[in-house]
Structures are given as structure tokens and as C-alpha cells.
Amino acid sequence: MAPFPTQQLFILALCRICEPIAFMSIFPYIYYMISSFHITSDDSQIAIYAGMVTSAFAFAEFSTGMVWGRLSDKIGRKPVLIGGLAGTGLSMMIFGFAPNLPVALLGRALGGLLNGNIGVLQTTVAEMITEKEHQPRAYAIMPFIWCLGSILGPALGGALAQPCVSYPAFFARGTIFDKFPFLLPNLVCAIILACGVVVGILFLQETHEELKSKRDYGIEAGEWLLLWFRAKPSADRSFDKAGEGYLDESRSLLEDEQPPGYRTTEGSPRLPSSRNQSPGYDGKAQRIRKSVGVQRSFTKQVILIIISYGILA
């Protein structure tokens, strides 16, 4: 049985936790942000506008979720996941600098349009877990990470909003944080998302069956960094004479020539390739790999699961 992919799931969780932090961080201060735009003095109208802003992200993400899923089948899971994090970070910066309601709506909607990580993440976990015994534990990690981010996000947003009022000793009047009082929580969330992007580029492996064999310069850079940090001083890496002698002896045994009776100039026999035996294999494989249509994807069981999840949400 293959070992449980703890390292890759941990890296995926680090990328995952960035999104609920960014998504939930606006909830504590969105009412005050809408009020600062001076659109209306009616509290009921402010609540309506606040609902529009908070739902813009989810609606936009719902609209483009299938598109990002299909794109991940072509270019891979990793680029889509990293692009979603980067898009969310960009939207947070736009939202933090929003001087009025239209810009705030644009920032939130842009974050949803550029983020299709919900479905792609589940697919990545499914491709990462090859053993059925590991599935219950693996599939429980991402919802747990979302709940953890949902706790940290509102706490972060409420603590950092309007810093010139909350922390006058550190944030003076007349600064950029006074002009944009809700910039700081969005700036911190953007930094968290940037960290998630860096971690994903350096350490997250591609899981798409047809694309994971391609060369990944990000993974190579991450391995180089790990080797650099783990490198010890030359004094620690030196061996004593007994150790060197043992290594030399082992190396000489491995490098000795084979006895005369075992020497051969013939190579190993080549097995015939299954693809060469069937000329139409490539065409059949391409037809099998074609994406399933939308109608065939939404089976009765899938529709029931979507309805149940919608009721719970």
C-alpha cells in the first residue's frame, strides 16, 4: 500500500487556508465600509449593499467554476490553483483601495472570476490519494482547513479594520491607512495569499495523470532551496578514516567487474510495446480521454448531492 501523502496534503492545506481567510475577513467590517461610502443613510439599504458585496465573490466563482475545471484538464491542476490564489490576492488589493461601491463590487467579483479552486482542489485530492484506505482521512482535511480559515479570517478582519481608530499609537492620522481605513486587513490577506502562491510554486506537485511527468522548474527550485537549507558545514560532513575506508571498500565491491562466466555483451531483451501492436490505440485513447459532457456529468446522484449541500450551506 502506498504511504499517506502527508507532505503534499500539508502543502495543499497551506494553499487552501489562504482563501477562507481572505473570503471571510470582510464580514466584520463590511457594514462600516459601505457606510463610509455615504451612499445612503438608511440602515436597511446599507444592509442590502453589504449583502451584494459579500455575495459577489461567491456568485462570480459559481459562474466560472466549470470553466476553471475544464482549463485544469488542459494545463494542469497546479497552474489553476496558483492562478486562483494570485487572482484572489489581486482582488483583495482592489477591494482595500476601493473608494466607492462600484469598485468594491468589482474587486470582489474579480476575485470570484479568477478563482476556481473549490472544484480543482477536490480533484487534486482525489488524484493525490490512490488508496481507498486513505480517502476518509484525506477528504476530511480540506473542510477542516476551511473551517479553520473561517475562524481566522473574521478575527483578522475585525482586528485590523480602521487601524487609525483602533491603534492610534501605531497608525497616525493623515496616512494611507487613514484615507483607506479598510486597506490593512486586505493588505495582510494579500500577503498571506502571496505566501500561499510561493509555497505552491515551490513545493506543490502536479497531480494530472498526463501532465505530472512534465518538468516543473518550481519544484526544482524548491528542492534546491531545501538542499541549501539542509546543507551542513563541511566539517560536519567529513568522515573519519575508518568510515572512508569502509566506503572505499564498498565502492570497490560495487565497481568490480563481473566474473567471466557472467559477462555478456547482449542487452536485455526488448519487450514489444502494446501501443506498437495496436495501431488504433492512440485514437481510442484520445476518445476515452475526452471530457464527459455536462449532461452526463450531472447524474441523479450528483444532483442530489448538490441539492443536499445547498440546503446545508
Largest sheet: none
State the order of secondary-structure elements, H for helix, E for strand: HHHHHHHHHHHHHHHHHH
Distance between the termini: 36 Å
- The residue fraction in helices comes out at over 70%
Structural class: mainly alpha
> Can you count the helices?
18
Shape descriptor: globular
Nearest-angstrom radius of gyration?
A: 27 Å
Write down how many β-strands occur, each being a DSSP E stretch of 2 or more residues. 0
Mean of the pLDDT scores? 80
The proportion of residues in beta strands is: under 5%
List the topology elements:
Layout: H1 6-24, H2 30-36, H3 43-75, H4 77-96, H5 101-113, H6 117-128, H7 135-139, H8 141-160, H9 163-166, H10 176-179, H11 183-203, H12 217-230, H13 234-237, H14 241-255, H15 274-277, H16 281-289, H17 294-297, H18 300-312
Helix pairs in contact: 1-4, 1-8, 1-11, 2-3, 3-4, 3-5, 3-6, 4-5, 4-6, 4-11
Describe, in plain words, how this protein is organized in 3D:
With 313 residues, this protein is an all-alpha fold. It has 18 helices and no strands. Helix 1 runs antiparallel to helix 11, helix 3 runs parallel beside helix 5 and helix 3 crosses helix 6. About 12% of the residues have low confidence. The radius of gyration is 27 Å and the shape is globular. 71% of the residues lie in helices and 0% in strands.
